[in-house]
Write a structure and sequence with these properties.
This is DUF4188 domain-containing protein. By secondary structure, the chain is of the alpha+beta class. Helices cover about 25% and strands about 30% of the residues. The strands form two sheets. It has a six-stranded antiparallel β-sheet. The chain has a three-stranded antiparallel β-sheet with strand order 8-3-9.
Length: about 180
């Protein structure tokens, strides 16, 4: 499996471990994401429920960005990379994270020594004080062979940005390699 890549497109980011660099263009040919085990997708989002809550929302976003920076440097956590998405309304931001498995994600989330716990406490205090910021998350576990991907003449994006690309011969079913 290839090392995760760091890709910056249209002000949306996918980040991989330190030492990776953005692809400089399209990779020609047919490819699939090169995965070799469980992949867990963790979606976490923020919504401003009131426009006057922008200050509180920015504090939450800054905390998220600090956590992502810390994860970027934590090679043992199982974190593979992320992508930040805005919308569909200007009140919403979402981070799509890629993990080596749900167990690794949950271990990170429940580790009392990690900064995540303090960020969560800050958000809970804001929520109880009615500062107008909503937070949500979803977890999707993709078992080996459960992902299907196809990339043609494009830089690695999405799952391929964190898992790498594997050639996809003609005439074969398009599935993530496991």
């Amino acid at each position: 499996m290839a090392d995760p890549q760091a890709v910056n497109m249209y002000r949306l980011t996918v980040a991989g471990p330190p030492g990776t660099r953005p692809e400089k263009g399209a990779v020609s040919g047919r490819h699939a994401a090169d995965t070799d085990g469980d992949v867990t997708l963790f979606l976490i989002g923020l919504r401003l429920n009131r426009w006057r809550s922008i200050g509180a929302g920015l504090r939450v976003v800054r905390a998220m960005l600090r956590l992502l920076a810390g994860l970027h440097d934590d090679h043992e956590s199982g974190y593979r990379g992320h992508r930040i998405l805005f919308g569909p309304s200007p009140r919403e931001v979402m981070v799509l994270q890629y993990w080596d498995g749900e167990d690794r994600l949950r271990a990170f989330a429940t580790d009392p020594g990690h900064e995540h716990r303090e960020a969560w406490r800050m958000f809970e205090q804001m929520a109880r004080s009615g500062q107008g910021v909503g937070l949500w998350h979803e977890i999707y576990r993709v078992p080996p062979g459960g992902a299907s991907s196809f990339y043609r003449d494009t830089p690695p994006i999405g799952l391929a940005a964190v898992a790498g690309l594997a050639p996809k011969p003609r005439g074969r079913r398009i599935r993530a390699h496991t």
